[in-house]
Design a protein that fits this description.
The complex is a heterodimer of chains A (524) and B (323). Chain A has 524 residues and is of the alpha+beta class. Chain A contains 17 helices and 19 strands. In chain A, strands 1, 8, 9, 10, 11, 12, 13, 14, 15, 16 and 17 form an eleven-stranded mixed β-sheet that branches. Helices cover 76% and strands 0% of the residues of chain B. Chain B starts with a helix and ends in an 8-residue tail after the last helix. Classes of the chains: A alpha+beta (524), B mainly alpha (323).
Chain lengths: 524, 323
């Protein structure tokens, strides 16, 4: 499932100084309104061409939707293809190509009914296409990103029930099965499309736009699909262009060379917000910001030390400093504002006296720890040095260690004790299953507890939603008290648009259905 | 007839330099391979990104043949190179040759335009300053070139974009969306070429000025003047060639530099050239692409420096250029 992968950032980090200089050169004084792009919208107007600038993957880019890795890949994939479901603003699964889903009593068999939708070549989307797509992703010989998300499905036992019905057989009860249908990269391609080179050269999807041309690392041009099942897009044409430097994306937007610029810096946003030249759109709750404590080794194998670290963090200062204020404080729980989020727990504040006392009890006075960080994501190095200063006030010496951008995520998975971490939007259930179970593949906090695993299984086997929410709350309460994630904030995802662009949804964390949704956008 | 010993001397000089150049290119490729291998992580780790599931990384590694020993991969690649095959990219499976040909056009265009403007500008300013040595024009030219030389490319680029593209709106701020068809949008090339020109013009004109000043003060120039040779002839046929020899070598170094300088300029102005390809390939640990580019850059550097040495050899045979 998706997590902001940001290999893009490995590349984008290169000219950090340039970006800073650009921001300085252009800086005015900040302030302004949110989601201004939504204001003054009238009836949608048809026609026109929208150019959208994204950070991309260079000459190795592909249009194969199952290989999607970067935001640019996903934005292109969702223009050309559909998934069976996608995430709403609260990360709950919303039906897309699936018109409906229904489970048996034990939640291990699900009947999915497809809506009437056609591929760009006129053929209807059928159960065969769905099963082909899922089997291609799950191919043991391949390494498609969504493979891990589809793992609960027993694809050999699943079968088509007519042209537009599929019975999915699961390996175990999975109450959140619809989340799997919405998984990152689980797009539906026509049967056998992967056997030809068509996916890259002339892709045929069921999405709102049809393929026109593609030059890897440069641009992709699509045009309106008049027969789109959800209604034709307003735009005639959509062009994705690749500009890896943030300053280049902003400049292109300011100079009228593009109408939509994805992923801007908070400083840029502040400089241009409310200035009338361009519109700044902030997608709230998009990127979780955290420090990861490895709970299986000293000093963090003692939960008093973990709690002390929770109390050392001045979250407001971290958000203001590392995110330039573009975000909200966190409460050591993933998924603020998402479905099942335990928002009844009190907001944790800095309490240095209590932190000191806890460290003393744990026999960890004059504690020294190494904090791994890297320029792999915006704000990482800043957050590390701010936290170092905060920890010093509680008598903890934090030694900040800079790591390589390109291998950061693999490096911090098993080694070290404390590291910077971030994650894109995903359902809370997915965050737990990917990172907090004994057999999770990316368990960076080494949170391995049989009773916690059992609670997760219990939630997945609970049919009633209120009861399930209660189980999730219990799990979150435990993580809040003694977990390994010190989640200090949630960063906004910042977009810039030309003043003529309308219909850009602001209540859509990056990577949800309404993010980068160009079929709903029009030019005034 | 009297020329032949000199010509054969030049030939053996060129032959020796070519051999040396080939050895240098091989050394560069080996070094690049070793350094890329020494970088933390490999293409599989880079591709897995923040999903570093060990099983997935192992599978990617196997699919990319990265589980084979490094020397075997290098040998395979070198064997292919002998047939003119640059191999295929690890990240995309597309041929490396395609990466190079796609990226070559824009970079070459930038370098050629820059050079075409650099030579007259650099020499003109240098000669102008030398003619007015110590006077206002000289001090103005020297002062400005020194000041511009001190500004890093990216800072100058940002400044130029802000003033000429965003404030005055005379020129497009980037080349985004133009792809490789840069000639069709000449306005988009103005700022990148200006940025690329800025520093080489300064270093070249200062070298030409210094060479000219030295030559004009030399005994042979004074002697020529005593014979009544006109001032212009002394300057352009006697003094200038002596100033050209170091300048020609500086020019060759400039072309090397241009190939690196384009990385910054390409990123800033979104021009899809070789610099961008290199940057992405290193980040993706796409070793075959990096190696292919190392060969191209290595060969270019060797050939250009050889050309410069030959020119210097012709201009000042007595300097005795060592191979």
């Amino acid at each position: 499932m998706y997590d902001e992968r940001f290999p893009g950032l490995r590349r984008r980090g290169f000219l950090a100084a340039t970006t800073g200089a650009a921001a300085l050169a252009l800086v005015g004084c900040g302030g302004g309104t949110d989601d201004a792009a939504e204001e003054g919208s009238s009836t949608p107007k048809r026609g026109g061409r929208l150019r959208a600038a994204f950070a991309g993957g260079g000459a190795s880019e592909t249009l194969d939707p199952h290989l999607a890795n970067l935001f640019a890949d996903v934005a292109r994939a969702k223009a050309l293809y559909d998934k069976l479901a996608d995430y709403g603003p609260d990360l709950s699964a919303q039906p897309r190509l699936a018109a409906s889903w229904e489970s048996n009593k034990t939640l291990d068999r699900w009947q999915v009914t497809l809506r009437k939708a056609a591929f760009h070549d006129g053929k209807l989307v059928t159960a065969k296409d769905v099963l082909y797509s899922y089997r291609r992703i799950a191919d043991p010989e391949q390494t498609f990103r969504a493979k891990a998300s589809l793992e609960p499905i027993d694809l050999d036992a699943s079968r088509a029930t007519g042209d537009n019905g599929i019975e999915f057989v699961l390996k175990r009860p999975t109450a959140e099965f619809p989340n799997i249908l919405a998984a990152f990269g689980a797009y539906i391609v026509p049967e056998n499309a992967g056997e030809t080179s068509d996916l890259d050269t002339k892709p045929v999807g069921s999405g709102p736009f049809r393929f026109v041309s593609f030059a890897p690392g440069r641009s992709a041009v699509f045009r309106r699909n008049d027969d789109y099942w959800e209604g034709a897009p307003h735009l005639d044409e959509l062009e994705f262009v690749v500009a890896n430097e943030e300053s280049a994306r902003v400049n292109a937007l300011l100079g009228g060379q593009v109408e939509y610029a994805h992923e801007l810096n908070p400083t840029t946003a502040r400089a241009h917000e409310g200035k009338g030249q361009i519109e700044i759109v902030r997608l709230r709750n998009s990127a979780m910001q955290a420090f990861c404590m490895k709970t299986d080794r000293a000093p963090f194998d003692d939960k008093r030390v973990r709690e002390a670290f929770f109390l050392i963090a001045d979250r407001k200062e971290l958000v203001d400093g590392a995110l330039s204020g573009a975000g909200v404080v966190g409460n050591d729980l993933f998924g603020k504002g998402y479905e099942y989020y335990a928002d009844s727990l009190p907001q944790r504040e800095q309490d240095l006296d209590k932190a000191r006392a806890l460290l003393r009890q744990a026999g960890a006075e004059n504690l020294k720890v190494t904090l791994d960080t890297s320029a792999v994501a915006a704000g990482f190095t800043e957050a590390a040095s701010i936290f170092r200063d905060q920890a010093a006030k509680a008598g903890v010496t934090v030694d900040v260690k800079m790591g390589s951008k390109d291998s950061y995520w693999a490096d911090i998975l098993d080694s070290g004790t404390l590291c910077c971490y971030r994650s894109g939007a995903m359902p809370i259930e997915a965050h737990i299953s990917q990172r907090l179970l004994t057999d999770s593949t990316t368990n960076a906090t080494k949170w391995q507890h049989k009773d916690f695993d059992a609670l997760y299984q219990q939630a997945q086997s609970t049919r009633d939603k209120t009861e399930r929410a209660a189980v999730y709350e219990r799990m979150q309460r435990r993580l809040y008290t003694e977990g390994g994630f010190l989640i200090w904030g949630f960063a906004d995802w910042i977009l810039g648009t030309a003043r003529t662009v309308r219909g850009v949804e602001a209540k859509a964390p990056a990577n949800t259905l309404d993010w980068a949704r160009f079929d709903k956008v029009w030019l005034a | 007839m009297s020329k032949s010993p000199r010509a054969s001397g030049l030939r053996s000089f060129v032959a020796r330099r070519l051999l040396l150049g080939a050895a240098q290119t091989v050394a560069v490729v080996l070094l690049v391979f070793a350094l890329t291998e020494a970088l933390p992580g490999d293409a599989a780790v880079a591709l897995a990104g923040d999903q570093p599931d060990p099983a997935r990384i192992a599978a990617i590694r196997e699919a990319m043949d990265l589980d084979r020993p490094a020397y075997e991969r290098l040998a395979d690649w070198a064997a292919g190179l002998l047939h003119g095959d640059f191999g295929t990219s690890l990240a995309s499976g597309r041929p490396v040759a395609q990466y190079i040909t796609d990226g070559f056009g824009p970079s070459l265009l930038l370098a050629a335009l820059t050079l075409a403007l650099l030579v007259p500008l650099g020499f003109g300013l240098g000669v102008l300053a030398a003619r007015h040595e110590g006077r206002l024009v000289d001090r103005l030219v020297s002062g400005v070139t020194l000041a511009v030389y001190a500004v890093p490319e990216f800072a100058l680029g940002v400044l130029l974009v802000t003033v000429f593209a965003l404030k005055l709106a005379w020129l497009p701020p980037t080349a985004v969306g133009y792809g490789t068809d840069l000639l069709g949008h000449p306005a988009a090339l103005v700022l990148p070429v200006l940025v690329l020109l800025s520093r080489p013009v300064c270093s070249l004109s200062r070298l030409v000025r210094a060479g000219m000043v030295d030559a004009l003060a030399s005994p042979y120039a004074a002697h020529a003047r005593r014979y009544g040779v006109p001032g212009a002839r002394v300057r352009y046929t006697h003094a200038l060639p002596n100033a050209l020899a170091p300048a020609a070598q500086q020019l060759a170094r400039t072309v090397d530099w241009l190939l690196c300088g384009v990385i910054v300029v390409e990123a800033l102005f979104v021009i899809p050239g070789l610099g961008t390809v290199l940057l992405n390939a290193v980040a993706e640990r796409d070793v075959p692409v990096v190696q292919g580019l190392a060969v191209v850059f290595g060969v270019l550097t060797v050939v250009l420096n050889l050309g410069a040495d030959v020119v210097a050899h012709r201009l000042t045979p007595r300097a005795g250029v060592a191979a």
